[in-house]
Amino acid sequence: MARGVPAQRVPAQARDDRRHRPPQGDAGEAVAAARAAGVSWWEQFFDEEYLVLYAPVLDAERTEREVAACASLLRLAGGMRVLDLCCGTGRHAIPLQRRGMRVTGVDSSRKLLAKAAERADRVGAYPSWVLGDARSVPLKAGAFDAAICLFNSIGYGTDAEALAMLREARRCSRQLLLETVHRDEHVRNAGPGGVFEWAERDGVRVLVERWIEAVPGVSRATFRIQREGQSDVVRDFRHRLYTATELVAMLRKAGFERIECYGDYDRRAFAIDSPLFLAHAR
């Protein structure tokens, strides 16, 4: 049986009493009712259906490669404190905890944190889980040796909110590993009229329409999840696409001085056709 989010096990020296959670992002057309109720689109998107949409590409081999790169780039050693911003189901937090780090995962989705707790129970590695907003983290300044923010977790709201999240990472830790998609690669692979895709797995069919809003630089998608005998589930997605130039500028504005940019976890040099943007900021 799924359990709720466990009580916080964050060390007292890392806690803070700030609980400000400002609204983030604009609701998409598919969640207009949620917007009227004061709920941001991402608060509905990151639930159990999110796992249906992305589980196929987040396999164990990929996760291990990313976790190994994190440990190497950040020079992590046993006992070091690591903050995982937007940790989701603990895909990186749990393996890092198993490697001997003391990990705290922060996420605004109660449902994803419940899944994280279940995964932690299965492998016997227990990060601390905090239900909170990455733009206003309820943790003390300088409480961590390193912070990570991985798998496109920046860009779901305004530019000011993205900067606020980076500033929180800098406030909590002296170094950050940031991974996200970047605009150059997205635009290079996007058609002017949008892209339609579909996939079927374990009896679930997912239809996807993707397009880019050129002026605001936002990647949009509408997902339609279909199951036999059930009503379709529709999810709207919007993600601000930043160039590497913009991301580096935001990291500097957040207070980081030394920034090394890579095009993948293998530390290849960043280029406009790199599959992702990876920055080690200090």
What report would you give on this structure?
The structure is a single chain. Helix content is 29%, strand content 24%. By secondary structure, it is of the alpha/beta class. The protein folds into two domains: 58-181 and 243-281, Rossmann fold; 185-239, S-adenosyl-L-methionine-dependent methyltransferases (N-terminal domain of TfIIb). The protein starts with 31 loop residues before the first helix and ends with a strand.
Question: How would you concisely characterize the structure shown here?
Answer:
The protein has helices at about 30-35, 40-45, 50-55, 60-75, 95-100, 110-125, 160-170, 185-190, 245-255; strands at about 80-85, 100-105, 130, 145-150, 175-180, 195-200, 205-215, 220-225, 235-240, 260, 275-280. With about 280 residues, the chain is of the alpha/beta class.
Unreliably modeled segments: 1-8, 17-37
Total of helices: 9
CATH superfamily of the largest domain: Vaccinia Virus protein VP39
* Number of self-contained structural domains: 2
User: Share of helix among residues?
Assistant: 25-40%
What sequence of helices (H) and strands (E) makes up the elements? HHHHEHEHEEHEHEEEEHEE
From the spread of the alpha carbons, the general shape counts as globular
How many strands? 11
Structural class: alpha/beta
Distance between the termini: 42 Å
CATH architecture assignment name of the largest domain: 3-Layer(aba) Sandwich
- State Rg: 18 Å
Broad CATH class of the largest domain: Alpha Beta
Overall mean pLDDT: 87
Q: Biggest sheet, open or closed, and with what strands and sense? A: 7 strands, mixed
